[in-house]
Specification:
There is one protein chain. The chain has 263 residues and is of the alpha+beta class. The strands form 3 sheets. Strands 4-6-7-9-8 form a 5-stranded mixed beta sheet, with helices on one face. A two-stranded antiparallel ribbon has the order 1-2. Strand 6 and strand 7 form a beta hairpin. Helix 2 runs parallel beside helix 6, helix 3 packs across helix 4 and helix 4 packs antiparallel against helix 6. 25% of the residues are buried. The structure holds adenosine-5'-diphosphate (ADP). One of its GO terms (cellular component) is plasma membrane.
């Protein structure tokens, strides 16, 4: 009856005269979906509980060290960092559920992707000024994309932000926009870094999957960025490809449908 990853439901009905009908149903799909849901809730709770436990611990310690202003300032600072981590995680969880809720509504803004990429670069530059001058945008004259502007901005934030976070300091982050055949626009974001080993590549868009958890957390990552990107690409009927060469760097390529000429 197939491999161990398969789940079958068996029902047996006895007929008069001793005969039996055996009814087998393949439940592999719904079983896997249940697992993913249960794992997701467990992971999300764990990710929220860790900073919360740390905040609660610091509150207790502060209550004991009531009149030392230096300790106060230091602990408040750590509590702020942990609270912001929770905030980023909650924002990303809400984004995921919003994108999923809109899954069946076709996006219909006409979006100038090159202008949006420049806006996102400026926003990211404000947060990571040390990497700002490394982001280079190369955009040929492009037709607009048919999409959801808010979601495409988030998509750009996540992949350009990752290239800035995980790329080597001082090396370029190359954002390239080109019309490809078949009425699609090709967006690629390439960084120079130690790259990602091939066994990780197929799992990067899973929720909370990280190659190096402590590095992701230190860089302020939630582990949800690429899961969000994948959902946005799916809603836009686009394609996502992540390629990486160990020792050289990573390139994320996304194809999005161009808006019809009449728009
Ligand atoms: P995170 O919030 O941890 O960055 P993502 O979902 O955006 O989560 O990415 C998942 C993981 O993929 C990251 O933790 C990191 O290990 C890896 N990753 C993503 N983008 C890059 C990149 N440009 N270079 C190297 N590793 C990357």
């Amino acid at each position: 009856l197939g491999s161990r990853d398969q789940h079958w439901e068996m029902r047996v009905r006895s007929l008069p005269g001793g005969q039996r009908i055996v009814h087998l149903s393949d439940r592999t799909g719904s079983h896997a979906a249940d697992r993913i849901r249960v794992d997701f809730v467990a992971n999300a709770s764990h990710e929220l509980r860790t900073p919360l436990a740390s905040i609660l611990g610091f509150i207790e310690t502060l209550e004991d060290a009531a009149d030392d202003p230096e300790t106060h300032a230091r602990f408040l600072n750590v509590m702020g960092t942990e609270a912001r981590r929770m905030q980023r995680l909650i924002d990303d969880l809400m984004s995921l559920s919003r994108i999923e809720a809109e899954k069946y509504r076709a996006p219909d803004d006409s979006v100038d992707l090159a202008a949006l990429a420049r806006e996102v670069r400026d926003e990211l530059a404000a947060v990571a000024p040390e990497r700002a001058s490394d982001v280079v945008i190369d955009a040929a004259a492009l037709p607009p994309v048919r999409g959801d502007k808010v979601q495409l901005s988030q998509l750009l934030h996540n992949i350009v932000g990752n290239a800035m976070k995980y790329g080597r300091a001082g090396t370029p982050v190359a954002v390239t926009l080109k019309a490809s055949g078949d009425s699609m626009i090709r967006l690629s974001v390439a960084d120079e870094s130690e790259g990602i080993a091939p066994e990780h590549l197929p799992r990067l868009t899973e929720r909370f999957y990280r190659v190096d958890s402590s590095r992701s957390r230190a860089a302020g990552g939630t582990g949800l960025g690429l899961a969000i990107v994948k959902h946005i690409v799916e809603r836009h009927r686009g394609r996502l490809d992540i390629g990486s060469v160990v020792g050289k760097g990573t390139t994320v390529t996304i194809f999005l449908p161009a808006a019809p000429a009449s728009q």
